[in-house]
Every structure is written in C-alpha cells, then in structure tokens.
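Hi team,

As requested, here is the filled-out complex form for the FE2/S2 (inorganic) cluster run. I kept the field names the same as last time so the parser does not choke. Let me know if anything looks off before we queue the next batch.

— J.
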Amino acid sequence: MSLPTSTTSVGRRSFLAGACATCAAAVAGCAGYGSGPAPAAPPPPAGAAAGALVSTADVPVGGGVALAAQNVVVTQPTAGTFKAFDATCTHQGCTVNEVAEGTIRCPCHGSSFSAADGSVTGGPATAPLPEKAVKVVGNAVTLA
Ligand code: FES
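And here is what came back:
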C-alpha cells in the first residue's frame, strides 16, 4: 500500500499561497486608490489650444457667454465672428454676467454694453468694456 504523495497538494498550497499574496497586494492597491491624490483634470477637448476660453459651439450667434473664472465675456455677434471683452464693468467694477439681445449686462446697476464692440448701450456706465484679442483655434476660442 502506498501513501499518496503530497507533491501535488503541496504544489497547490504553494500556488494558492502565491495567489493569495498577489490578491492581497491587489486589494491593498485598491484600498489605497480612494485615499490618494485626486485624479487629474480631463484633458482639453481635441483641437483645443492651450489658453482656450470656450468651445465655439458654446457661444450662441447673436449672444455670448460670461466666463467669470477668466473675467472675460466671449460673444459671437455674427456667425463665425468671435469677440471678447473684459468682464469688469466700467461703472463701479462689478462683473458683467449676462449676454442677451445683443448686449452684455451688468447686474449691479443695469449698465449694458454692445456685444459687438463693447460700447455702452445703457448707463450708468460711460466707458466701453475693453476688448480682448481672441482667435479661433480648432473648435476653441482662445486669447490671441
Ligand atoms: S458696476 Fe456695473 S452698472 Fe454699476
């Protein structure tokens, strides 16, 4: 009578022990995932250049968008023509925050400015919004 050799079962134990060590490392790696640094911001859209302000598709024809973080208003007075203006109202320094019906509007005292050239269309402001040079690169409006 022969006893079964233990080679096979030892082999399995060794294999399982190795597999468990691998699993433990993987689990430890996963456990640390949530406590690490925040993931990087997504890359800019394809075709966007560094310094891109906004996608051309996000600027309505005859209107515009106020970009508070960049302190810029980007407008598209006519299809394919993009303009940008400093978003600091020339009356008392509030940030203009709306573009509607061809005008850029200030919420503080109601001044309005032309979306085409930044000129005053309604007081109390008396000076135009300074224009900023922009260009279209790919599908993005960028500072020139
Ligand atoms: S600060 Fe804009 S209207 Fe007064």
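Two things worth flagging: Residues 1-47 have pLDDT under 50 and may be disordered. Helices lie at 7-31.

Thanks,
J.
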